[in-house]
Design brief:
globular, alpha/beta, binds NADP nicotinamide-adenine-dinucleotide phosphate, binds fe (iii) ion, six-stranded parallel β-sheet, Rossmann fold, Dehydroquinate synthase-like, alpha domain, 369 residues, 15 helices
Length: 369
C-alpha cells in the first residue's frame, strides 16, 4: 500500500464554530480583506459575525464584494490589485465556491504583482497571504482544497490551479451559514459534493484514505437524498450536506476530478448551467461508461445508495435536477474537444477518447430534431 495524504487546513466544524474560535482570526495580522459575492456573505449571516470579531480585535478591514459566479481571471485580477494596494495581511473568503476560489487567487495576487494568467504556472516568488475560508454553500469543499477554478475567457472554459500553499489556513464550517441558500442552490451544490466523492472514488488517483472519505461522503449523501428531493431540508440535513461537501473536498485534494467536471465546465461556460447541476446531469452515463473498468467500486456506490442498478441511481439524480438542455451536434463536438484538453480527463478510470465523450453527451443531451 502506498499513498500520501495532506490537508493544509485547520478545520473547525459545527454550529457557532466561528464565534467559539474567534481568537483564530486574531493570528494573521492587523489588516484583512474580506472577499465575497454580492449577497451571500450578508444573507448567510457570516459577514455580520466576521465584522463583529474584527472590530473586537481592532483588525482593520475592507470588503471586496464583487466576486462573480464562476469568477474569471479578470475578476480576480481586480480583487488582487485591491488587496495589493491596501497592503492587507490576510484574506477572509466568505461564500460559495466562487468567492472561496477567488480568495485563493486574490491571496496570491496580493503578494505577487503578476499577470493573472501566470497563476497557472503555480510557482510564485512570494507565498500567498493566509486565507480564512467560510463556506455558505455545501458543495465545492473549496474550504479544504488548494484549488481555485477560474473562468478562462481566452480558452472558453474553466481551469484550475493550486498548490500546497493555497489551502486555506483555517476553515470555519457552520451549516447555519448555509440555511439562507435557495432550494435550487442547495440541491445543485449538494450534487457537486457527491460528484467530488464519486469521481474521486473512481479516479485512477484514488488512495485508501481518499476512498474511506469518499465512501463516507456517498453514504451520507444517500441518507439525504429523499430530503433533497422532497425539499424537506432541516438543520441536521444541512449539517450532513456540509460534512459531505468537506469530505468531498478532502477527496479531490488528493485525486482531482475527472470527466464529469471536465464536461460540466462547458455547460456552465456556454449555457450558464450552475456547476453542481452541470455535473449531476452526466452521472448516469458516466457510471455506465466506466462500469467495466471499475465495476466493484460502482457496485459499492449503488449499494451505498441502496439501489441495484445504475438507472435507479440515475433516476434519483433526475428527481433532483431538471434536464432542460438540448445540444446540437456542433455543440457536442466542441464540448468533447474542450474536455479532452482538461488534465483531469486523464484521471478517469477508463482511458478516454473524444468519441467516448461525444457518446456520453449525445446520450444525455442530443436534441431530437
Ligand atoms: P457559487 O457560485 O459560489 O454561488 C452560487 C449562488 O448562490 C450565488 O448567487 C451566491 O450568491 C449564492 N449563495 C451562496 N451562498 C448563499 C447563501 N448562504 N445564501 C444565499 N445565497 C447564497 O456556487 P458554488 O456551487 O458554491 O461554487 C461554484 C464554483 O466553485 C464554481 O466556479 C466551481 O468551478 C467552483 N468549484 C471549486 C472547487 C474547489 O475545489 N475549489 C470544487 C468544485 C467547484 P453571491 O453571488 O452573493 O455569491
Ligand atoms: Fe465541483
Amino acid at each position: 500500500m502506498q499513498f500520501g495524504f495532506q490537508i493544509g487546513t485547520k478545520v473547525l466544524f459545527g454550529k457557532g464554530c466561528l464565534i467559539t474560535n474567534k481568537a483564530l482570526l486574531n493570528k494573521f495580522g492587523k489588516k484583512a480583506l474580506v472577499v465575497t459575492g454580492k449577497g451571500s456573505a450578508k444573507a448567510s449571516g457570516a459577514l455580520d459575525d466576521v465584522e463583529e470579531i474584527l472590530k473586537e480585535y481592532k483588525i482593520e478591514y475592507s470588503i471586496y464584494d464583487k466576486v462573480e459566479n464562476n469568477p474569471s481571471l479578470e475578476n480576480v485580477a481586480e480583487g488582487g490589485k485591491i488587496a495589493r494596494e491596501l497592503n492587507v495581511d490576510f484574506i477572509i473568503g466568505i461564500g460559495g465556491g466562487s468567492p472561496l476560489d477567488a480568495s485563493k487567487a486574490v491571496a496570491i495576487l496580493a503578494a505577487n504583482d503578476i499577470e493573472p494568467l501566470e497563476l497557472y504556472k503555480n510557482v510564485f516568488d512570494n507565498k500567498p497571504l493566509p486565507i480564512i475560508a467560510i463556506p455558505t454553500t455545501a458543495g465545492t469543499g473549496s474550504e479544504v482544497t488548494p484549488y481555485s477554478i477560474l473562468t478562462r475567457n481566452d480558452m472558453k472554459t474553466k481551469m484550475s490551479f493550486g498548490n500546497e500553499d493555497t489551502f486555506p489556513k483555517v476553515a470555519f464550517i457552520d451549516a447555519a451559514y448555509t440555511e439562507s441558500m435557495s432550494y435550487e442552490t442547495t440541491v445543485n451544490t449538494a450534487v457537486d459534493a457527491l460528484s467530488h466523492a464519486m469521481e474521486g472514488f473512481l479516479s485512477r488517483r484514488s488512495t485508501p484514505v481518499s476512498d474511506a472519505l469518499a465512501i463516507e461522503a456517498i453514504k451520507i449523501f444517500g441518507e439525504c437524498a429523499e430530503a433533497l428531493i422532497d425539499n424537506n431540508i432541516d438543520f441536521s440535513v444541512r449539517e450532513k450536506l456540509l460534512y459531505v461537501s468537506m469530505l468531498g473536498g478532502m477527496v479531490i485534494s488528493h485525486t482531482g476530478t475527472t470527466i464529469i467536471h471536465g464536461l460540466g465546465y462547458s455547460l456552465t461556460y456556454f449555457k450558464d448551467i450552475p456547476h453542481g447541476k452541470a455535473n449531476g446531469l452526466f452521472m448516469r452515463e458516466y457510471l455506465k461508461y466506466n462500469y467495466n473498468a471499475v465495476n466493484e467500486k460502482i457496485n459499492k456506490v449503488l449499494e451505498l445508495f441502496k439501489v441495484s442498478t445504475i438507472d435507479e441511481f440515475g433516476d434519483i439524480i433526475d428527481k433532483m435536477l431538471k434536464n432542460d438542455i438540448n445540444l446540437s451536434s456542433e455543440e457536442i463536438q466542441l464540448y468533447a474537444s474542450l474536455t479532452m484538453k482538461q488534465r483531469s480527463t486523464s484521471y478517469n478510470a477508463r482511458e478516454v477518447a473524444e468519441g467516448d465523450l461525444i457518446d456520453i453527451l449525445e446520450k444525455t443531451f442530443l436534441s431530437p430534431n
